[in-house]
Structure to design on (276 residues):
């Protein structure tokens, strides 16, 4: 990937007691934060599983694909602080007129569908996360912006830091730190609406707004980036992360995993981009 002129500016500021470096993409104007290299805890512990079953009424046996908890290691990378919005996705579509708009034929979901004739998003949803995008749509946007989708390991480290916490903000659920329940749990929220729920690296909406595409094939743990799961040409379901507006503490966690066919479209699935 070419890195020349990839980012327009670099800044450093204090967050959560640590220095967080940021820079801005000249293509889509998004701010990215730097997640440092190193080890972190990935997956779920027996204690966390028990806590979620007892306190959050999580279904017993629903955590098998999050086990075993293990130590993973990622190289330093950059991640969009915020989800890609409808307004930003429109810039991509304007630059790629042959690409279809996010839509779906189900009548009850027309409120989220773009107008194919005008190639525009629904009125009033400029700052909402773009949804109804396939895995290939998300990849294409990231490539257009000079970036890529994050691996699920990168996503998890950016969401929870190195201490193995359940949520980006800590181990205790807080309903006012995510979009869970927005509009009666029927819709997502504008991106960045809940800054108090940011991760240790100041990344917003990592849980409870919309599920987020990653580059990774859905395979069993422990995570191994070299076992074929990061083969972008391979067939199979891809990992989504982060939960959604209709799911609370039991599902919208930093270590929860979900999977979708790459061709799936849903009003609860969006994405953000990463860069090396």
């Amino acid at each position: 990937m070419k890195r020349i002129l990839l980012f327009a500016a670099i800044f450093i500021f204090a967050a959560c007691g640590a220095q967080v470096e940021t820079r801005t993409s000249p293509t889509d104007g998004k701010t990215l934060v730097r997640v440092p290299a190193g080890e972190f805890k990935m997956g779920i512990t027996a204690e966390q599983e028990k806590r979620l079953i007892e306190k959050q009424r999580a279904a017993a046996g629903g955590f098998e694909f999050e086990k075993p908890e293990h130590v993973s290691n990622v190289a330093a990378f950059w991640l969009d602080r915020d989800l890609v919005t409808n307004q930003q996705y429109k810039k991509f579509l304007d630059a790629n007129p042959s690409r279809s708009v996010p839509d779906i034929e189900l009548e009850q979901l027309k409120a989220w569908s773009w107008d194919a004739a005008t190639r525009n998003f629904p009125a009033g949803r400029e700052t909402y996360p773009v949804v109804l995008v396939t895995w290939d749509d998300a990849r294409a946007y990231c490539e257009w912006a000079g970036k890529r989708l994050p691996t699920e390991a990168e996503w998890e480290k950016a969401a929870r830091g190195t201490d193995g916490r359940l949520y980006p903000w800590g181990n205790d659920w807080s309903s006012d730190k995510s979009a869970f329940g927005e509009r009666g749990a029927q819709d997502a929220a504008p991106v960045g609406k809940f800054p108090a729920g940011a991760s240790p690296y100041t990344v917003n909406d990592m849980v409870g707004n919309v599920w987020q595409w990653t580059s990774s094939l859905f395979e069993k743990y422990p995570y191994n980036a070299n076992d074929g799961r990061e083969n972008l040409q391979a067939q199979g379901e891809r990992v989504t992360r982060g939960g959604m507006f209709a799911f609370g503490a039991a599902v919208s966690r930093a270590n929860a995993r979900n999977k979708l066919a790459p061709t799936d479209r849903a009003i609860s699935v969006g994405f953000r981009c990463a860069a090396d």
Remarks:
- The longest strand covers residues 9-15.
- Confidence is low (pLDDT under 50) at residues 1-17.
